[in-house]
Specification:
Keywords: Cell membrane, Membrane, Signal, Transport. Residues 29-48 are annotated as: Disordered. It is a single chain. By secondary structure, the chain is α/β, with parallel strands linked by helices. The chain contains 13 helices and nine strands. It has helices spanning 2-45, 62-78, 89-98, 114-120, 156-159, 171-182, 196-208, 223-226, 253-256, 258-266, 271-282, 287-297, 299-305, and strands at 53-58, 81-86, 103-109, 124-141, 162-164, 190-192, 215-219, 229-231, 243-250. Strands 3, 4, 7, 8 and 9 form a five-stranded antiparallel beta sheet that branches. A two-stranded parallel ribbon has the order 1-2. Strands 5-6 form a two-stranded parallel ribbon. Helix 2 crosses helix 11. It starts with a helix and ends with a helix. 39% of the residues are buried.
Length: 309
């Protein structure tokens, strides 16, 4: 009796063990199938994970402050850890060429940054224009009678033979220095360098008092929306033709962060959108705040920038 009981118990235990093993095997197969299925979906969909640290550099011009913060906000919203760093022109180009920074949306070509482009372009990737129709030149208020660099010299006494510039070494400053040497009437004139902000302040103060002033100017820029200004004619072509603002990134960015690369490649906008951000910053908004407002209010455009091909 006891022997038969143990025999029956052993048979039952063996059958239970077989069922447990079978159940476990079925679960494992299910897990493996799910894993393979999920991996297949991810691979077939080509989804890009937006993560990583990215540094964008820019020169502290109104245009570049606006554009860099806007595209930086777009990348941040996607999930990137974004740092935006203001630098001198030459250092900006060098940092992207060396790979110390990841990219910039601040390359004025072909004239303004022409020398820097020739020096560094072979060591970076050019993604093309993010804005077309940019311009540089000598700018005066509309109320001034002078219309051309050819006769600017006639107003030397009123202007103290001085053109108010921005940062030393900036392309528009170099072009203006060339203009002073090219136009006979400007013999003895000087280009007084300072900063973009100081130039804009001097222009505003003179404009409010209807005083004469000539500055190194460029567009797009908020000053053309806030004041009635004009470019002086440049018959010698010292300032060159219309320019583009282009996006440049470091070599290897496409492989390291394909999503960020694609967004930077897609980035392009028009003057009205551009000016709206600059004007908000000029009116007192922080660049981060203005960028966030733009992204929120222009989602259709942002969607175009963030479309992954």
């Amino acid at each position: 009796m006891l022997k038969g009981t143990w025999k029956s118990f052993g048979l039952v235990a063996m059958l239970a063990l077989i069922l447990v093993i079978a159940a476990c095997g079925s679960d494992n197969e299910g897990s493996g199938s799910d894993s393979e299925e999920n991996g297949s979906d991810s691979g077939e969909s080509g989804d890009i994970t937006h993560e990583g640290e990215i540094e964008l550099v820019y020169v502290e011009w109104a245009t570049e402050i606006a554009s860099t913060h806007v595209i930086g906000k777009v990348l941040e919203d996607l999930g990137y850890d974004v740092e935006v760093t203001p630098l001198d022109n030459a250092v900006m180009w060098q940092s992207v060429a060396s790979g110390d920074a990841d990219g910039m949306v601040a390359a004025w070509l072909p004239a303004t940054h022409g020398d820097l482009y020739e020096e560094h372009s072979d060591s970076m990737v050019e993604l093309g224009p993010n804005f077309e129709g940019a311009k540089i030149g000598a700018v005066v208020p509309e109320y001034m009678e002078v219309d051309s660099l050819e006769n600017l010299g006639e107003y030397g006494d009123d202007l103290n033979e001085t053109i108010t510039g921005i940062e030393p070494g900036a392309g528009v400053v170099q072009a203006t220095e060339d203009a002073v040497e090219t136009y006979e009437g400007l013999d003895g004139w000087t280009v007084e360098t300072s900063s973009s902000g100081a130039m804009a302040t001097s222009l505003q103060e003179a404009y409010e008092n209807e005083e004469p002033i000539v500055v190194t100017g460029w567009s797009p820029h908020w000053k053309f929306a806030e004041m009635d200004l004009k470019y002086l004619e440049d018959p010698e072509g010292v300032y060159g033709d219309a320019e583009t603002i282009e996006t440049m990134v470091r070599e290897g960015l496409e492989e390291d962060m394909p999503g960020a690369y694609q967004v930077l490649d897609n980035f392009q906008w028009g003057e009205e959108k551009f000016n709206s951000v600059m004007a908000e910053i000029q009116d007192g908004a922080d660049p981060e705040e203005a960028a966030a407002n733009f992204v929120e209010n222009n989602q259709d455009l942002v969607d175009e920038w963030t479309t992954m091909e």
